[in-house]
Every structure is written in C-alpha cells, then in structure tokens.
Amino acid sequence: MRAQIAVSFVVGLLFSLGLSLSDMTQPQNILAFLDVLNWSPVLMFVMAGAVLVYGIGFHLIMGRRTQPILASKFDVPTRRDLTPQLIGGSVIFGIGWGLGGYCGGPAIVSLVTGRPEPFVFVAAMFAGMFLHQMFFERPAPTAAPKAGQN
124 with 102: CB under 8 angstroms? Predict the structure, then answer.
C-alpha cells in the first residue's frame, strides 16, 4: 500500500510539472485555444504529445504484462456506450473549462500560486462532485435476507 501511495505521488508530481512546464496552468492559454478569432494551437500540441505517450505506453504495458506491478489486475474501463449522463457531464465540463480556463488537474496545480481564481474553480468543482454524488450516485439496492438466513 505504501508503494502505491509513493508511486501515485511521483506520477502526480510529474503530471503537475508537465502541466506547469507547458503553461497549461495559465487560463489564458486554454482560452486562446478555444478562441476562434485568436486561435493558439499550443494546447493541441500538448494534448497530442500526451495521447502519443499514453498510446505507446498503454500498448507496450498491456502487450507485455498480465497484471500491474502494484495491483492484482488492470482496471481498464469496459463500457463503450454513450449515456445521457456522460454527454451531459461532458457538456458541463466543457462549459466550465471554457468559462474558467481550467480543468481539474491544472486548477489543482494552480492552487500553489495563491491566486483566488483557482481556489474558486476548485471549490466549484468539488461542489459539483458533491452534488452529483448526492443526487445521481445512489447506492445499489441490497437484497433482503431470506427467511432463515442472517
């Protein structure tokens, strides 16, 4: 368990350094990508680099290993359908991203700047997560025990 926490910390640190070095923690860079009149392709190149590294790494790892080093099995999503919740969540994410210039990772990394904007964004993000959990993630019903069972 400690090894998983240490690896998670190092991976998160590398991710935050990558976001910082590529200036993806600066909302003006994100907003410039979304601005059709003053378009900047920087975010596209950062995304393309990330997808390329992930794609190569995923296929190398999945082709050579039967299980992860620090877990009993790979946790790869199997669902391929588009649900109204997925589409609605994507729309809400996109609106928030376009209005604020942040998404989750860069906003959390930006907290170290001390500026109020990332704190407001992260607070709103956590409020949205809480509301989603409160209203949409209902626990699965449990079957009542049959007579004679405990």
Answer: no
Sign of CA dihedral 73, 103, 80, 15: negative
Residue 109 burial (C-beta neighbours within 10 Å; 0-12, 13-18, 19+): buried
Q: CB atoms < 10 A from the CB of 25, how many? A: 23
Closest by CA to 19, choosing from 40, 41, 50, is 50
Residues 26-84: tens digit of each pLDDT:
999 889 998 889 899 998 998 999 999 999 999 999 999 999 988 889 988 898 999 99
- Cβ(97)–Cβ(30) below 8 Å: yes
**Quick check: 70 and 7 in contact, CB under 8 A?**
yes
Domain limits, the chain: 2-45+83-136
